[in-house]
Amino acid sequence: FFFLYFPEMNGISFRIQITVKELLDTDVLLKLLFHLPVNYPSTVPDISVNSDQLTRAQCMEVKDKLLEQAKKHLSEPMVHDLILWIQQHLKDVIKQSATVCNEKTTLSKGTSTEDGIWMLLLHLDHMRAKAKYVKTVEKWASDLRLTGRLMFMGKIILILLQGDRSSIKDYLILQKTSKVDVDSSGKKCKEKMMSVLCETEVQSQYKRFQTFEVKEYSTLKELQKEFETAGLTTLFSEFVPPLLK
């Protein structure tokens, strides 16, 4: 498997990718994000799960099962044991998830509810290593299957993301804990001047972005039009003009 780790003041974040072979006639690539708090292993880690081969419900089931196992290993290092456990039991977890989904479908008698899609609007103060920073944001959005825009207008830098709530939260963890930029001396550093302007569920009047794009705007009016096209006029009016003051 493959992993990256990001040391931080309040613990460590691990990004781990593992491939489970011969599952449902295909290989499944699991993308796991572990955040180990400073009092780990006395406290279970935060865990997020993503996979292109699994549904959102299956990823949530894998996460729940990993947290259940983590509670059995309190006060002892557990990440390696959790990885081994999910490699051995993923097939059973997915089968159980399918059973639960079928039961819910039967109970609903044909009615269905749309999975909640969330939206996140971030403001960045600056990017010193712009090319590297942009490439990193694009990769995170792709890995977490998030759509939206990275927007530049003068000195204003905004990141607008849409996707599963768990993926939005995973993105925030990466944005806060990774060394994405450089300081005035050229040394790699974390993003310390980011503001979360808005984090909310996507409403029916909003239009979904189909892709993630990096765009530059020469005027505020051009930027405003981008928001208006997505049905986000109120979001723009509330949060963007104050940034110019």
TrEMBL record:
Keyword Cytoplasm: yes
UniProt keyword terms in alphabetical order: Cytoplasm, Nucleus
Biological process annotations from GO: cellular response to stress; positive regulation of hypoxia-inducible factor-1alpha signaling pathway; positive regulation of protein sumoylation; regulation of gene expression
Localization annotation: Cytoplasm; Nucleus
The keyword tRNA-binding is assigned to this record: no
Domain RWD: 1-93
PROSITE patterns, alphabetized: RWD (PS50908)
Protein task: Enhancer of SUMO conjugation. Increases SUMO conjugation to proteins by promoting the: binding of E1 and E2 enzymes, thioester linkage between SUMO and ube2i/ubc9 and transfer of SUMO to specific target proteins which include hif1a, pias, nfkbia, nr3c1 and top1. Has no effect on ubiquitination.
Name assigned to this protein: RWD domain-containing protein 3
